[in-house]
Amino acid sequence: MKVLLIDPAGAQRYVTHNAGLAYLSSALLARRHEVRVLDMNNYDFSNEEVAAYAAEFKPDWVGASVKTALVSSAEKTMRHIRSLWPHARTLVGGAHIGVTGAGYMSTQDVYEFGLTGEGERAIPDLIEGKDINGIPGLVHYENGAWRVNKTEFIFDLDSLPYPTYRTWERIDRSLFPYLMVHSRGCPYYCTFCSVPKINGRKFRRRSPEGTVFGNEGMQHAVVRVHAIEVVRDLPAEEPARDRMLRISCHRRRATVLHRHVHGAGVGAVVRAGRAYDAHSTMTLHPPAGLCDSCRWQKVVRNTRGSRFSLCRNPELPKYPRLPVTDCRGYERRAPDREAPEAG
């Protein structure tokens, strides 16, 4: 099957690539499906361009990963796709569907299916024609109403393929950290957070070895990446993250960074906001773009070891959205000088 996955455009752009679509891409590739991803949130694809791409690619399925703020944008994109390629079946997943389920599906008219929970196994089962009533987390229309199948979470995370970005039609891996999501679920009840609703209250963890080495091999996974970021959910993960750092930190003898990542051009490993440089060219995390060589930059360091790029030009925002690729106030810093730091 041909599958086209969409990360819709939104107001909060240039944050990171969609790790969920990277995991889903790997799962679909492992089942021998052809996958392509259009990242409208970080690259300038118009709705017309996406629709034309779909008409040329002729996918059997089109899916969208939707956060609440992107609901309207995603629906517009899907309508453009269906206007030029009405033959594809449609699916929506992501955080918004994980929280709202049938409530959202009953208000829209562009998606045939929705998915709550995790899609690495459910979505391949769906497109391969498995019984829809037996697919965990599937939201489907039956007997005049939207129904939600019981969600079943994946506990053996090491069994999942390593996320891949080879399916991205347009990508610059130097713009953002390479996300290493090594756990899912959270038992806490923070009122502002949707993680327990989306990923369950049972804490699940991928082994440090499985996170670092993965199924693709680290060197192939992170080529041309400026930074690797370890994303965690719980403070209780400290022992696992320490173990992961021992595996990946380049300062140790038997290390991934020394044998694999360093040779692939990785700039840093980031652990709980602290950057461990793989080579001297990595000065900040995330990469600040033009700011890293600008005379107006000031590096601000907090008590936890994180560093931020502050702009001292009074005519510009103090904390610009990173990475900065174009700036009217840019002035190159003298090559023999470093940006001042403030604690």
N- to C-terminal distance: 54 Å
How confident overall, as mean pLDDT? 79
Strand order of the largest sheet: 2-1-3-4-5-6-7
Low-confidence stretches: 215-224, 249-285
By CATH reckoning, the class of the largest domain would read Alpha Beta
How does the helix and strand content classify structurally? alpha/beta
Largest sheet: 7 strands, mixed
Helix % is 10-25%
H/E order of the elements? Answer: EHEHEHEHHEHEEEEHEHHEHHEEEEE
> What count of domains describes the coordinates?
3
CATH superfamily of the largest domain: Response regulator
* Named CATH topology of the largest domain: Rossmann fold
Overall outline: globular
- Which architecture of the largest domain does the CATH hierarchy give at level 2? 3-Layer(aba) Sandwich
Q: Please indicate the percent range of residues in DSSP E strands (runs of 2 or more).
A: 15-25%
Layout of SSEs?
Blueprint: E1 2-7, H1 19-30, E2 34-39, H2 47-57, E3 61-65, H3 71-84, E4 89-93, H4 95-100, H5 102-105, E5 113-115, H6 122-127, E6 138-142, E7 145-148, E8 178-181, E9 183-184, H7 195-199, E10 204-205, H8 208-213, H9 218-221, E11 228-231, H10 238-248, H11 256-261, E12 268-271, E13 274-277, E14 297-301, E15 307-311, E16 341-342
Parallel strand pairs: 1-2, 1-3, 3-4, 4-5, 8-11, 11-12, 14-16
Antiparallel strand pairs: 5-6, 6-7, 9-10, 12-13, 14-15
Helix pairs in contact: 2-3
